């Protein structure tokens, strides 16, 4: 073995060894409790693995990216069989897959007046999509992949792009590459828990996912050299990783363990080497200059102020660059608001789609700023969220019986010249 190979193995081995030692000191009982919880969850999910609810299963298909990589996709038609008024494309984030939107799928499929068609896909090297060469794992390429998906599966009609984390960066890259698309067809954009740049300056990426972090560098090298060894180590530390997932993905300490298990399962389904391939592009992502190109769309910027992955300030920066954006702050919520507070996210998506429908019905683009919620108490926020849902239902824009938010998010009112 080369000196470099031994160095990589030594560093990575030391990291794994240190993690194992730390895990073994005073946490044996906790690990047993976590393992029992996960076994119970697995049994419960297996027992209830019958017919999926309406709107959760679509038509599976593949799209070839411009470099030949196969992208796994899914198209979900309106649950009532009606003609959709627009297509909603859902774009997931780093280390996840299209199951990110499991709480939104049945809700969006059940919308009426307008009804919508959904397109979901797994980013390259994620989920069921093909593992891509490391040098193609860039935000630029993800933007081109999204363009390929749209051209193949939604070639005409108005679009709403709903994105999370690295998915939001993907949408920004598409806007940079094809600004005309956002003038002609993209009428609405949701940017959930994402960033326009400076990812290595704060939050978890600044410590764990920075391209300058020697541990991540060593792990990436070891994953390329001995992938089996890395995956074995990952399985051995599975319960510890589950705890870290709960801590960093969610803000609520009492979050449903099934939601933790869903995120943990998505992360675990992606090879470590495939994930470390994206570290460089996350660290160099800078598309602040592309954001004004979204000003002609209806834009929702939503995030939790308890996000440890991408801090709240990143969403504020995005909203400052898009004067017409609706900025929604979810107090105490972590990096996965669509799973942690699905009712609130669903209500905001309903409102975004309603505004988008108004825009497309008028045959033009509106520059009018959507209504903003001021800083209010939780009870006042909940009342406002319920009123919003009632207004949308009375206009026939939300299906009967859809969920209302238990606690509406907080939006910051910004003064504009």
Question: Could you give the topology of this structure?
Answer:
Layout: H1 3-24, H2 28-47, E1 59-64, E2 70-76, E3 86-91, H3 105-109, E4 116-121, H4 139-153, E5 159-164, H5 166-177, H6 179-184, E6 186-192, H7 214-225, H8 227-236, H9 238-249, H10 257-268, H11 272-276, H12 279-284, E7 298-304, H13 313-321, E8 326-330, H14 337-340, H15 342-361, H16 378-394
Parallel strand pairs: 3-4, 3-5, 5-6, 6-7, 7-8
Antiparallel strand pairs: 1-2, 2-4
Helix pairs in contact: 1-7, 4-5, 7-8, 9-10, 15-16
What does this protein structure show overall?
With 417 residues, the chain is of the alpha/beta class. 45% of the residues lie in helices and 12% in strands. The chain contains 16 helices and eight strands. It has helices at 3-24, 28-47, 105-109, 139-153, 166-177, 179-184, 214-225, 227-236, 238-249, 257-268, 272-276, 279-284, 313-321, 337-340, 342-361, 378-394, and strands spanning 59-64, 70-76, 86-91, 116-121, 159-164, 186-192, 298-304, 326-330. The protein has an eight-stranded mixed β-sheet with strand order 1-2-4-3-5-6-7-8, with helices on both faces. Strand 3, helix 3 (105-109) and strand 4 form a beta-alpha-beta unit. Helix 9 (238-249) packs across helix 10 (257-268) and helix 15 packs across helix 16. The longest helix has 22 residues, at 3-24. It is globular. The termini are far apart. Mean pLDDT is 75; it is low at 1-27, 45-50, 203-210, 215-231 and 365-417.
